[in-house]
Amino acid sequence: MKDFDFNQYYQNHEVDLSWLNKPSQHGFRWRCTNGSWRKSKRRVSSVDSFRKAITRDNPSDVYFSTSSWLEPIDLPNLNDETKPHPILLNHLIVFDIDFAPLSLENLERARLTTLNLHKWIEKNYDYELMSISFSGSKGFHLFYNDPDRSLFSIEDGKEREDAVRENRKKLLEEVLLAGFKVDPRITADTRRIIRLPGTIHGKTGLLCHRINIERLGTNIESWISDVPSFFDNMDIPKVAKVEPKKVNQAGKKLTKTIQQNNVEQSYMIEVSNHLPGTKDRTSLIFWTPYSWGTGELCLEQLEDLVKSENLADSYIFSDGQRILFVCPEAFTRAKIVKLLDKIGMEKLSKTLATRKHYWVRISGIMNEDGNWYNEPKFISVIKGNNSKQNYSKAHLKLLTKLGLDIDISQCEQSAGNTEPSIRMVVRD
Asked: 10 Å Cβ neighbour count for 54?
């Protein structure tokens, strides 16, 4: 890679800017073969201006901003209050789908996920498909334009960007809850950069390039050999060998690693147990302690809980290490505080009492390598007393988002708003 003349390649081959409406409104950055980063000091509006921008560098990886700006050059930092807030003109809806490590098997998983996600987007949203890219490594990028321009009419620049970011967060949450393994760092980030089609991937030597929907619908092995490769030693294994993750004796969590003084981060979706639209109503959602296990004894404890407390039907999920218990009733906060104390979950009880609600993980966990683990899978229903129960509309809706077929209209007594409070979080 170090011996490859990227600059010379780009002086003789065209990057793909044809699908961008106004490339000059996007920022461009690249990583050089010496590890340093550079950004364009001029607007890139054409292939020629791109060539001029990189002429003194040897860029191994080239990226562009997913947002377009009135002034994309020297964009101030997000928290820089000393300068006027930049004017966001548009923000592409981008999904990054890849499965590590690189292998034909994982590429096929990524291809199928990308194809199914596109079908799901077409069914549920009015977005315009702009481009599909093979990333040059482990997966694919989907680019959409949102024809709804209402958020971009907000006059205040900061309020506009904040509103767009929140809109994209909601979309991302829906996508993740629908079961699509996308990189959660990309879609909602208005300051994100992503690999430019028509450029070489600096690690693999494969060309990041646009593909059509027909190719996306075709098995990866039928066309991957046609992808231009610029490094002689590149060979994609059929099945990747994965080094096992180190787990502590309790099996509680992946061992944290520190690399170059950076703590590894993970990404997940959480739901609040509070009923939106109510003052003090809450549902009963919790992960069982590791000490309970995931076998018959744990399920017996939960069955006893449902029976002794006269609960409604409760839903059981497992991530292989613990059980996620969801009872979609509408309880008073005080009752759940006492109940959690009763079953030995004092810490959760204290959080509920002091903060008026708590957050519970409802997705798998994604590490910085893009690998997912500990994804909760539906196991069973513990039948309870459904005769006169008051249900949480939001948490019934949550169960449908988790893939269960629940007829909410049959629950005559219900409280709160329909949509649950959901957030995406980053954990160290």
From this structure: 21
C-beta of residue 164 within 8 angstroms of C-beta of residue 98: no
Tokens (6 digits) for 292: 């309970």
Tell me the C-alpha distance between 172 and 182, whole Å.
9
Confidence label for 324 from pLDDT (cuts 50, 70 and 90): very high
The CATH 3.90.920.10 domain(s) of the chain lie at 6-226
Identify whether the C-beta of residue 394 lies closer than 8 Å to the C-beta of residue 418. Answer: yes
Structure tokens belonging to residue 128? 């315009």
- Measure the CA–CA gap between 388 and 414, rounded to whole angstroms: 11
Backbone angles phi, psi at 144, to 5 degrees: -130, 155
Q: What are phi and psi of 270, to 5 degrees?
A: -125, 155
DSSP 8-state symbol, 85: P
Measured in residues, the chain has a length of 428
- What pLDDT does 408 receive? 67
Closest CA to 213 of 136, 139, 133, 126: 133
Among 282, 265, 238, 270, CA closest to 369: 265
pLDDT tens track for 74-91: 999 888 888 999 999 999
162 φ/ψ angles, rounded to the nearest 5 degrees: -60, -40
Confidence of residue 260 (pLDDT cuts 50, 70, 90): very low
Q: What is the pTM of this model?
A: 0.82
Peptide bond into 328 cis (omega under 30): no
CB contact at 8 A, 65 and 192: yes
Tokens of 199: 């450029």
Residue of 92, 93, 88 lying closest to 151 (CA atoms):
88
CATH number of 6-226: 3.90.920.10
User: What residue type is assigned to position 420 of the chain?
Assistant: P
- SS3 assignment, position 273: coil
pLDDT tens-place string over residues 19-50: 999 999 999 999 999 999 999 999 999 999 99
Cβ atoms within 10 A of the Cβ of 98, count? 23
Under DSSP, is residue 66 helix (H, G, I), strand (E, B) or coil? coil
CA 348, 353, 355, 361 dihedral sign is positive
Residue with tokens 């839903």: 315
Cα–Cα dist 189/168, whole Å? 8
Q: How large is the average pLDDT for residues 357-380? A: 90
